[in-house]
Amino acid sequence: MEERLTCGKGLAENSVLPGKLGELAAAMAENFEVHMWALDVNDPSSRREYDVYVQLANGQRETAARLLATANEMAAARHLPMGRHEFTEATNSHALAAFEKVVKLKQELAALLQQTADRDRALLAQMRAANGKQQSLPQEKP
């Protein structure tokens, strides 16, 4: 017997995306902070760069925390009882348009992530070569 999909289960299943986005935002914040270690804050240009990175790292940490909290709330809704829904032609058309927008943006995000991952893998290879570490790069999933 097939288990009935509920809104709560849908929220829980979709909690993975904001969770991963939160992890990515936290990793970006960490990357910003590590970059700051190399800056000579006695140099005026480096000091300005440092200040920008501090602001960006703090913003990314806040974004990460909010996304992870949202993901946790969505996952916790798994057993939310199914409420009564009254779909009309108007609500159906709005729901369709809203979901079409979600699907379109997910497709755009997937393409952007692939593009930036390709660029970042190349940069990572250069960093490893400069550091004398010839390690294999993570393989793409088919």
Task: Explain the overall architecture.
It contains 4 helices and no strands. The mean pLDDT is about 90. It has about 140 residues and is mostly helical. It folds into 2 domains: about 80 residues; about 40 residues.
Question: What is the element layout, followed by pairings?
Answer:
Elements: H1 7-13, H2 16-37, H3 44-76, H4 89-130
Helix pairs in contact: 1-3, 2-3
Summarize the main sheet.
none
Instruction: Tell me what portion of residues adopts beta-strand conformation.
Output: under 5%
The domain count comes to 2
Low-pLDDT runs of 5+ residues are none
Anisotropy-based shape? elongated
How many helices? The count is 4
- Please tell me the overall pLDDT: 91
Tell me roughly what share of residues is in helical segments: over 70%
Q: What is Rg? A: 21 Å
Order of helices and strands: HHHH
Summarize the structure.
This protein is mainly alpha-helical. The protein is built from four helices and no strands.
Supply database-style keywords.
2 domains; elongated; mainly alpha; 142 residues
